[in-house]
Design a protein that fits this description.
Number of strands: 6
Strand order of the largest sheet: 1-2-3-4-5-6
Strand content: 15-25%
Structural class: alpha+beta
Number of helices: 4
Low-confidence stretches: none
Oligomer: single chain
Largest sheet: 6 strands, antiparallel
Radius of gyration: 25 Å
Distance between the termini: 76 Å
Length: about 180
């Protein structure tokens, strides 16, 4: 005969109670974790928009070719010489297709009148631009769309709509405080 009083271990009921407690804690914690992750993606997107603004102004002052007409011009091949057609001012994570980083897709559209490119520049710059970061999946990777233009003011669309097509459309959005 086996003496049950000397056995060590957990009963099935005790184990089920512990599992239920863990599931309740997870149900409370996971939505907060997802909100925190979405906030981190949005903060990263704002930082990337700032970087793209700075890089575009640097491009303008370095090459005398107006503002960069697209993200590809701001990128380039690592180790190669920087030129006005491949300035190497921004990390290839953003400048190479699919132009995504931290749950956002980025775009830069040169607008306005093309400038006459200086010698050695194959792609003419422009006199205005709009840069945007759009969540890959609204409500999961981010909630808001961010944009900026040559003014340097970062603005957002709280509904997370698509990238504004013009700098005027971007300027119509609420400024980030």
């Amino acid at each position: 005969m086996i003496n049950r009083k000397n056995q060590k271990g957990f009963s099935l009921i005790e184990l089920l109670i512990v599992v239920a407690i863990i599931l309740i804690i997870a149900a409370i914690a996971i939505p907060n974790l997802l909100r925190a992750q979405m906030a981190a993606h949005e903060a990263s997107a704002v930082g990337s928009i700032r970087t793209l603004n700075t890089s575009t102004v640097t491009y303008q002052s370095t090459y005398g070719n107006g503002f960069a007409p697209n993200l590809t011009v701001l990128g380039g091949t690592a180790g190669a010489a920087a030129t006005c057609d491949a300035a190497q001012l921004v990390d290839p994570t953003i400048t190479a297709a699919p132009n995504q980083k931290s749950g956002y897709t980025f775009s830069l559209v040169g607008l306005g009148t093309p400038v006459t490119p200086p010698a050695g520049c194959g792609t003419p710059g422009t006199n205005t631009y709009v840069v945007a970061g759009v969540p890959i999946t609204v409500g999961t990777t981010g909630q808001r769309t961010f944009c900026s233009d040559e003014s340097g003011v970062i603005r957002f669309d709280p509904a997370g709509g698509g990238a504004p097509a013009t700098d005027t459309a971007c300027e119509g959005l609420q400024a980030l405080q």
